[in-house]
Design goal:
- The structure holds two protein chains of two kinds.
- By secondary structure, chain A is mostly helical.
- Chain A has 15 helices and four strands.
- Chain A folds into two domains: 99 residues, 3-Layer(aba) Sandwich (D-Maltodextrin-Binding Protein, domain 2), CATH 3.40.190; 221 residues, no CATH class.
- The mean pLDDT of chain A is 82.
- Chain B is of the alpha/beta class.
- Chain B has two domains: 215 residues, 3-Layer(aba) Sandwich (Rossmann fold); 64 residues, Alpha-Beta Plaits, CATH 3.30.70.
- Chain B has ten helices and 14 strands.
- In chain B, strands 6-7-8-3-9-10 form a six-stranded mixed beta sheet, sandwiched between helices. In chain B, strands 2-1-4-5 form a four-stranded antiparallel beta sheet, covered by helices on one side.
- The radius of gyration of chain B is 24 Å and the shape is elongated.
- The two termini of chain B are 14 Å apart.
- Classes of the chains: A mainly alpha, B alpha/beta.
- Chains A and B meet through α1 and α8 of A and α2 and α3 of B.
Chain lengths: 397, 308
């Protein structure tokens, strides 16, 4: 191992161990997992609660049974039709909740008895059924076979040829992209702030002077970013994996080609994005000496990221193929948040991915250089907040 | 051998160090004294590479210090600090490994120093749960745990209880006897005088005196204590070679321009002419007095390089 890298790995190992063994990490991860589980359970319950209805027919309206059963599938309704012995018993069953509706009287103008108001799709089914009955009677009266007419009508219709057929997975892809963007945002904000806190803790406890008498500032900075980045990655993998497992179990997610490329791009962009933001956070943290002051130097960064995230998230949901989100996903500080989402949606040309990647790499390199310089200049300065101009001054050798 | 050679440092418009120069030899305990703000801490920080000098060089065994050779230095910063939420043993091992020790060496050294400093029971405790005195001991262990070839300690005695002062003194002597150059700064001049082989006095960023306490004494004004009970006031005022006198130590203290036989004999003869002479001796000023004389009395750093 290169002698310059051993301290970096030692520092990274310390940061990793200190955080992963800490209560905050374990409890935080468990709480998020629990929330994820609750959410999945709710979704699963809602999905299993299909649209069903049970209606009773009595008297002449019994003739509606077949038209009702034919109309129900077009409304996506699973319908059960039962014959009621007499209207009074049927109405009692409706009041008791055993039936959703009781249909009596003339099949063309039936009387529908419900508890409060009819369910929307059930009402449409009944309207369809009575209309079909009226139509069939009219056609039959004029010597036309309704069944033959239906067969002819069923044959009619255009053949649509789309230049770009819609992706049947579009909804799932969007969900995946949004989840990815959110996880990246969450992870970068959380662990970036942790880097800043770690820097300030070392400054406020003065241990940084001992450490810096053994290693160079860039080694300390790099070790910190690597160590905490690994913690963030671990949490990302745990949460992302759990999320995917839950989604797969709920049948929301079909594994396909889009899934693997999404996962890969989320990981790659996380690494790049974390290096970028963690360096900014570390440089910001090195400007202050006390935990109480940390927030004041971090808020400009966190607010910028938050604003970009909110704007990008809205653009992504409202118009995933629009120019706005394309531009935002190309701007280096926001690329790591939104490029993976666009990759998940499958709406991004390869050229744009390469361009965004190159821009972000260049931006990260510049940030590392500048942030490293600010960090080296400020990390030993205690007391008042270090001015930006001083922080940018000549770095020590 | 640790050589501080002409290092200068400015902070904005403030000159912190102005060609600071001194040398600490192997097997030598070097005391570094001076007022607050004289440049002691800045000098040590530069020696440890924590700050960059504007000019000058720090050499260890003749070679300029770099990142690798700096790891041979055990350092105790003036601003004490350790990771508050890290256990004592883990922390010491970590600091030793950062200075290039193998994991096994680091473990052995951490165990050895915690035992030596009476912290065996505390190895598993977080530093923030320790008493202040024990935290100071951990701090000393942190400076020693990488088995350094050189020790640079900034105010190592401040905040120590008397027992810890003894432990610290023993450890410093032990390292010195093992052949390490040891330099520490302190405001406790009696301690420095008792402990140190050589002393450097700094004022306004410059070393204004450097040498053994005896050498510094020799360089400071020679004084003579004469106790002659029957002598009239002002009896010695006009003697040849006497530049001043004051009443002190039960008689009078004469400041001499030189310590030649002629001057001494002249003073003794004059004293005996006044009556009985109970005491006649060269005065040995304490380091504190030399220090006051050096730091306060001179506008020109004339003592520079007294014995360097």
């Amino acid at each position: 191992m290169s002698p310059a890298l051993r301290p970096v790995l030692l520092i990274a190992r310390r940061e990793f161990a200190a955080k992963v063994k800490g209560r905050a990490f374990v409890v935080g991860t468990l709480v998020v997992l629990l929330l994820l589980g609750v959410y999945a359970a709710v979704v699963a319950t809602l999905a299993s609660n299909e649209d069903t209805a049970r209606v009773g027919v009595a008297g002449p309206a019994t003739a509606l049974t077949d038209p009702l059963l034919r109309a129900a599938p077009t409304e996506g309704l699973t319908l059960t039709v039962v014959g009621a012995p007499d209207p009074a018993a049927g109405e009692a069953a409706v009041r008791a909740g055993d039936l959703d509706a009781l249909i009596t009287g003339d099949p063309v103008r039936p009387r529908v008895y419900v508890a409060t108001e009819p369910d929307g799709s059930l009402e449409r089914v009944i309207v369809d059924a009575s209309a079909a009955t009226a139509r069939d009677a009219y056609l039959a009266g004029r010597g036309v076979d309704p069944a033959a007419l239906d067969a002819v009508v069923a044959e009619a219709g255009p053949a649509v040829v789309a230049a770009e057929p819609p992706d049947p997975q579009a909804g799932r892809r969007l969900g995946l992209g949004l989840a990815g963007a959110f996880l990246l945002f969450f992870s970068i904000q959380t662990y970036g702030a942790m880097v800043a806190q770690g820097v300030v803790e070392e400054k406020s406890s003065r241990v940084v002077e001992i450490v810096l008498s053994s290693v160079r500032p860039w080694q300390l900075l790099l070790g910190k970013v690597l160590g905490l980045g690994a913690v963030g990655l671990l949490q990302l993998v745990v949460l992302g994996g759990a999320g995917l497992a839950v989604a797969a179990a709920a049948g929301v997610l079909a594994s396909g080609a889009g899934l693997v490329s999404t996962l890969v791009s989320v990981l790659v962009w996380y690494l790049l994005g974390f290096a970028l933001y963690a360096t900014i956070f570390a440089a910001a943290g090195s400007l202050v000496s006390r935990q109480e002051d940390t927030q004041s130097v971090l808020s400009p960064v966190t607010i910028t990221v938050l604003l970009g995230f909110v704007v990008g998230f809205n653009l992504l949901t409202s118009d995933p193929r629009g120019t706005g989100i394309a531009v935002i996903s190309l701007l280096p500080p926001f690329s790591p948040l939104f490029m993976p989402a666009r990759v998940a949606l499958g709406v991004v040309p390869a050229g744009q991915v390469v361009l965004a990647f190159g821009l972000t790499l260049a931006f990260t390199a510049a940030t590392l250089w500048l942030g490293g310089r600010i960090y080296a200049n400020s990390v030993l300065r205690t007391g008042a907040r270090v001015g930006f101009r001083e922080a940018l001054g000549r770095a020590r050798g | 051998m640790l050589e501080i050679d002409g290092i200068s440092k400015r902070f904005g418009s403030t000159v912190a160090l102005d060609r600071m120069t001194f040398t600490v030899h192997p097997g030598e305990l070097f005391g570094f004294v001076g007022a607050n703000g004289a440049g002691k801490t800045t000098t040590m920080r530069i020696a440890l590479g924590v700050l960059a000098a504007d000019a000058g060089e720090v050499r260890l065994d003749g070679r300029p210090l770099d990142a690798v050779s700096r790891r041979r230095i055990g350092y105790m910063p003036e601003e004490r600090g350790l990771y508050p939420r890290m256990a004592v043993g883990t922390q010491l091992r970590y600091l030793a490994e950062l200075r290039g020790r193998s994991a096994a060496d680091a473990r052995a050294a951490a165990d050895r120093w915690t035992e030596r400093l009476g912290l065996t029971e505390r190895r598993g405790d977080e530093v923030q749960r320790l008493s202040l005195g024990n935290q100071q001991r951990v701090q000393l262990a942190a400076a020693l745990v990488a088995d350094p070839d050189v020790l640079v300690l900034d105010e190592p005695f401040s905040g120590l209880d008397p027992v810890a002062v003894d432990v610290m003194s023993d450890v410093l002597r032990e390292r010195r006897d093992a052949g390490a150059p040891v330099v520490f700064s302190s405001h406790q001049l009696e301690l420095v005088e008792r402990l140190c082989d050589r002393v450097g006095i700094v004022r306004a960023g410059r070393a204004v005196a450097e040498g053994t306490v005896d050498e510094l004494r020799a360089a400071s004004a020679s004084e003579l204590v004469v106790v002659a009970p029957a002598a009239p006031t002002g009896w010695a005022d006009h003697l040849s070679g006497v530049t001043g006198s004051r009443a002190a130590e039960g008689g009078i203290v004469l400041t001499l321009a030189d310590t030649s036989e002629a001057t001494l004999a002249g003073v003794l003869d004059a004293a005996r002419r006044t009556g009985p002479v109970h005491e006649f001796r060269r005065r040995r000023p304490a380091l504190a007095e030399i220090y006051r004389g050096t730091v306060a009395g001179r506008t020109e750093p004339a003592g520079h390089g007294v014995a360097a």
